[in-house]
Amino acid sequence: MPAPTNTLLIEGSFEELAEELARYLDNQGQGEQTSSLHSEIGSLLQDNKKDEVLKKLVSGSTVLNSAPEREFIAAYNLLIHLVRQSPNMNMFLPVICRNLSQPISSSPSNGAGLALSILSTVFNIIQPDSDTRYHVFLAILNVIKSTSNFETLRPQLKHLDAWLAQWESDEEEQRKLYLAVSDAASDAGEVEDAYAYLVRALRTIPSEEASSDEACTLSLRALKSALTHPTHFDFQDLTSLDSIQALRKSEPTYFELLEIFTSELLDDFNDFKDEHDHFLADAELDGAALNRKMRLLTLASIAASTGQTRSLPYSAIARALQIPAADVEMWVIDVIRAGLVEGKLSQQTQTFLIHRSTYRVFAENQWREVASRLDMWRSSLVGVLAVVRQEKEAFIAQKEQELRELDSKMNGGGMAGYRPGRQQRNAVEAE
């Protein structure tokens, strides 16, 4: 993978190294080439036509994918070293990247590692602000995708935004790269990363293109991913996107389903299934998984709506989730594990005591509740301050009273002019 280095040292003149590589390619391509590369580049070298020489070498370098594993990296490094000497280096790199994206037939088990090693070298010899790096990185993603080795890529993702800024990539290029990362993550079974980069790709779609075929396709893909993701419960990241909102017209049934999972309850989901028979099956959505998620979301909603009581009877939970009373505790434990609600079960009172609940949609009613709670807390704090002030005043008054009483006793007992220090000294002298 990319690393902070751009050094590649190979001794020899361009002419000597070009002839050496041409002879090697000729040997590797015996039986495939009808002419000799070494003989073809001879006259070109004499005329100092280096770019023409490189075109021949790069075109013939496809045979390197069948080169012995122990020679693969050395041969490619030589080719890259020669290409790097051309002022038109970017003209040759796409072919090299395309070749490296193909299977390495000489090493089926280690081929991806060999290709990534060379692609990383190519990436690192390019200036950081060159947009050529963008195309090389796409080739790296293609190799990673073919091997489902997403962990190799993960450490580099933290640099992705900075790279895109350096390359001055436009929205379409950013979208292509985010989708490539999403595809690589998906093939490796990394569903969270796959979804995250898919949403990032959607955010690059301009508002005026929100209804395009591409936007619709990607939006449906993201919607299905969010619905079936076992731990994704907040759909605000989708509903805020223009391309998702465009589904209201282009795919109204999908959009209706999204609205149900955004803010509605299990009863609404069951009504949807009755109204759109076979829709889930036709859309290849797992009905059982959606039922489970909808129950968890419903429980989160009724927990958030308890108000000041902050408790839910088992019977209310069983009724809302349409489950036997014996299963209530199991579902409460599941919703706590999902992070949607925090609380404590009371078997004695058959209630769920809620400490914290998650609002699925934070709208006007929720803001009103927040304002109400803030007012209540402010009133409580005012009361606490009044009590503290009263106690402080009482404490000061008590101390003043004690001082007055002490002074009165001292004056009434003929102790005017009493000096504790002098009395103590006299007592010491008497001794």
Automatic annotation (TrEMBL):
Keywords from the UniProt entry = Cytoplasm, Initiation factor, Protein biosynthesis
Q: Cellular location of this protein? A: Cytoplasm
A single Gene Ontology MF term assigned here is: translation initiation factor activity
One GO CC term, this protein = eukaryotic 43S preinitiation complex
Q: Which domain of life is it from?
A: Eukaryota
Q: Which GO terms describe its biological process?
A: formation of cytoplasmic translation initiation complex
Q: Which InterPro entries match?
A: COPS7/eIF3m, eIF3m, eIF3m_C_helix, PCI_dom
Q: What does this protein do?
A: Component of the eukaryotic translation initiation factor 3 (eIF-3) complex, which is involved in protein synthesis of a specialized repertoire of mRNAs and, together with other initiation factors, stimulates binding of mRNA and methionyl-tRNAi to the 40S ribosome. The eIF-3 complex specifically targets and initiates translation of a subset of mRNAs involved in cell proliferation.
Which PANTHER family does the entry link to? Answer: COP9 SIGNALOSOME COMPLEX SUBUNIT 7/DENDRITIC CELL PROTEIN GA17, EUKARYOTIC TRANSLATION INITIATION FACTOR 3 SUBUNIT M
* Subunit: Component of the eukaryotic translation initiation factor 3 (eIF-3) complex.
What is the protein name given in its UniProt record? Answer: Eukaryotic translation initiation factor 3 subunit M
Give the organism, scientific name.
Answer: Cryomyces minteri
